[in-house]
Amino acid sequence: MSDVPGAPADLLRSLTRAERLLSRRLGAVLADDELTTEAWRVLCLLADGQGHPMSEVSAEASLPPGTLTKLVDHLVDRNLVFRRIDPLDRRRIRAYLTARGRREHARIEERVRASLADLGVPADPALIGQLDDLIHRLDPTRPRDHADATGSRH
Questions:
Q1: What is the pLDDT of residues 16-38, one digit of tens each?
Q2: Where does the record place a coiled coil (predicted)?
Q3: Which CATH code, of 3.30.420.10, 3.90.1300.10, 1.10.10.10, 3.30.470.20, is assigned to 8-138?
Q4: pTM of this prediction?
Q5: Which strands form 81-85's sheet, in the order they lie side by side?
Q6: Model confidence at 134: pLDDT above 90
Q7: Labelling 37: which of 9, 46, 47, 64 has CA 20 to 30 A away?
Q8: What's the distance, CA 47 to chain centroid?
Q9: Are 146 and 132 in contact (CB under 8 A)?
């Protein structure tokens, strides 16, 4: 990319490569449970128990609304997610984890953490904070995310 250490192209290349490799490793862990990384992102977002509007889930999971709807339909069929009309805005639909979804999320999260620990890659709060700061600088309108390397939000 560049002969100058620390060049912007190096940052982009390193972040892209790390994301691809982490997604591949995560995909291998999730395959045992017949989940995709996109489904995992949805489960992690919903794991906070607050329920989220489908538009927010779409944005956070980086999925177009139609694709998200099909994915959530699949998660509903597996009894991992349910949808309800938003009590404050009846035009919106909110998604939540079912009790089974919460159990499955916790179980799979342990497997993801173990896979990362096998690599010697802890969910480093400092690195996560730096990435969260970078995301906020690139998109200041977006609320700060406090997700760890497994995808779980705290």
A1: 998 898 899 999 999 999 999 99
A2: none
A3: 1.10.10.10
A4: 0.80
A5: 52-53, 93-97, 81-85
A6: no
A7: 9
A8: 10
A9: yes
